[in-house]
Amino acid sequence: MVFNLFNKEKERPTAATADDRLSLVLSYQRSDIDERKLKKFQGRLIELCDEFGYDVVGEVEIRPQSRSRDNTTVLNASIPVRLRGNQEEKSTDS
Amino acid sequence: MKQKSVAITVTSGKGGVGKSTTVASVGLALARLGRRVCVMDTDIGLRKLDLMLGLENRIVYDLVDVIEGTSKLRQSLVSHKEYNNLALLPAAQTRYKEEVSPAQVKHLVDELRNEFEFILIDSPAGIEGGFRNAIAPADRAILVVNPEIPSVRDSDRVIGLLESANLDQIDLVVNRVQPGMVKDGDMLSVERVQNHLAINLLGIVPEDRRIIRSSNTGEPVVLDDKSMAGRAFNNIARRINGEEVPFLELEESSLINRIKRIFHIA
């Protein structure tokens, strides 16, 4: 800080922000994903969880990520679930 | 033995990234290496290559005239003032891109192959008809990109279109790189751009004030020994010509820049 005569704070490099944004926009573009498609996809995932006996207990998040080594997109889905049987057991217990 | 002719389309998607500068500079550099080169402007209605090469006053006929049969191909070619192994096939300035088809441009380039070893095709911005005309005859493509998000995103889209047109060899030129900004973390590095696009790196061209001067005078920067961009374009031409040339060291190392960085004012 001795040399920082102009008291200029070090901010996060904007190139790093650009890099993150670029990963996201490229993955959306490569997989031709829009918000409507993602919503529909979320709905189907919830149906699928239901079919396999899981209750979705929070927000389903789908985050596309760009994988540069082979120019593909990886869809990361985060689905908070609870096994229906267990929940019933718990509620029965309580 | 007659050398095989290669048609290279220089494209980008986004406008203003330096396609025409690249075509004019690399074309002239290849001619200075002794190759027979034709630079072809397919940006019908918005031609630029004539200005970049200082040949705007020599144009009589153009690409559309040849396609329509108003002139012969040889009549439309404009030779460079100093290097007569470099010729320009200009675009028409008062016509529309839709007036020519990809098949017609391909036929025209096939004729040029008899005369020239390298045919560099300057593609218009965008991904519509003009772009399709420019890529139809290509054996390979050079993608010019600036290290910023809109340019990289458009380039990624163009790579998809080139691949679906069965163009397998696509090389990357990262233009207008500012090493000081990269070092300070305010510009995407060439490495990051290349990682995102995942294609072969052909050249790195630094931002250079001399580029503007060169377009003002109609003398490409490859003729300017003091220009770093000129050296970078010369190196690109040598790589296209089959030589192995290391990439330029672009790091700014002046004393003033180092002092600025120490005090966080750069």
From TrEMBL, chain A:
Residues 85-94 have a biased composition (Basic and acidic residues). It comes from the Bacteria. Residues 67-94 are annotated as: Disordered. Belongs to the MinE family. Prevents the cell division inhibition by proteins MinC and MinD at internal division sites while permitting inhibition at polar sites. This ensures cell division at the proper site by restricting the formation of a division septum at the midpoint of the long axis of the cell. This is Septum formation topological specificity factor MinE. It comes from Kroppenstedtia guangzhouensis. The lineage of its organism: Bacteria, Bacillati, Bacillota, Bacilli, Bacillales.
Automatic annotation (TrEMBL), chain B:
Coiled coil: none annotated. InterPro entries: MinD, MinD_FleN, P-loop_NTPase, ParA/MinD_ATPase, YlxH/NBP35. Signal peptide: none annotated. The keyword Cell wall biogenesis/degradation does not apply. ATPase required for the correct placement of the division site. Cell division inhibitors MinC and MinD act in concert to form an inhibitor capable of blocking formation of the polar Z ring septums. Rapidly oscillates between the poles of the cell to destabilize FtsZ filaments that have formed before they mature into polar Z rings. Belongs to the ParA family. MinD subfamily. It holds the Pfam family ParA. Keywords: ATP-binding, Cell cycle, Cell division, Nucleotide-binding, Septation. Gene3D superfamilies: P-loop containing nucleotide triphosphate hydrolases (3.40.50.300). This is Septum site-determining protein MinD.
